[in-house]
Amino acid sequence: MSEQPNTEDEFTEHRALLFSIAYEILGSVADAEDVLQDTYLRWRSASHASVANPRAYLAKIVTRQALGVLRSAVRRREQYVGPWLPEPLVTDAVGDAPDGLGHVLTGEAVTTAMLLVLDTLTPTQRAVFVLREVFAFDYPEIAAAVGKSEAAVRQLNQRARNSVRAKRHTAVATPAQARPIAERFLTAAATGDVQGLMDVLAPDVVFLGDGGGVVTTALRPVVGPDKVARLLLGLLAKGARMGELDIRLGTYNGMHSVAVLIDGVLDQVSSIEVRGSAVTAVYCVRNPEKLTAVKI
Question: What pTM did the predictor assign?
Answer without folding.
Answer: 0.88
